[in-house]
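pipeline stage [seq->struct] | target=Translation initiation factor IF-3 | organism=Tessaracoccus lapidicaptus | residues=219
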Amino acid sequence: MRVPEVRLVGPNGEQVGIVRVEDALRLAAENDLDLVEVAPMARPPVAKLMDYGKFKFEAAQKERDARRNQSNVSTKEMKLRLKIDNHDYETKKGHVVRFLKAGDKVKITIMFRGREQSRPELGMELLKRLAEDVAEFGYVESAPKQDGRNMLMVLGPTKKKTEARAEHAADRDRRMAERQHALDEERRLEAELRAQAAQAAAAKKKRGPADNMDPDIDL
């Protein structure tokens, strides 16, 4: 450092005050720490006593964790017809719910045909109905708008993709545990039945033929 003094911060964030650089370097050496300039534009510059190697390692670890947890939200698309029947509507609504639960956005497109273009209010009603039906899993991120012969609306997921993945993993682990428990119970019952059958066979063999004869018969 080419400045005569710095505002020194201790290793635990405590404010030491303004000290000469020589004194700051001496304190760093005495505590086996590094003197790191953290705010060079301040007057005087701010420096901190720290383990620089540990600091760099922790910073790199945080960056890796941030990249790992970064959610890459994709946008799915669902197309509807204005005159959609109830069965088809329920099917497509199920797909929308599945996308939202997975943490993805969904772009809903209503395609108008011929004279349907003169009834945009019907498209608005259909999109409003869908938004209300999936409100538990998503919200209207982009309100319905006309785009030529189409009307568009974007739904965003109420849960982040990382949360959705965590819930999916937890649900998968729960199902696996339940299946394993059922399998273990089935094996236990089979083992009990085999043991009972073996005991019955052993008891029958031990009695022998004479045990099965009528005791009133005079041999």
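stage status: PASS
auto-comment: The chain has five helices and eight strands. Residues 5-53 form a domain with the Ubiquitin-like (UB roll) fold (CATH 3.10.20.80).
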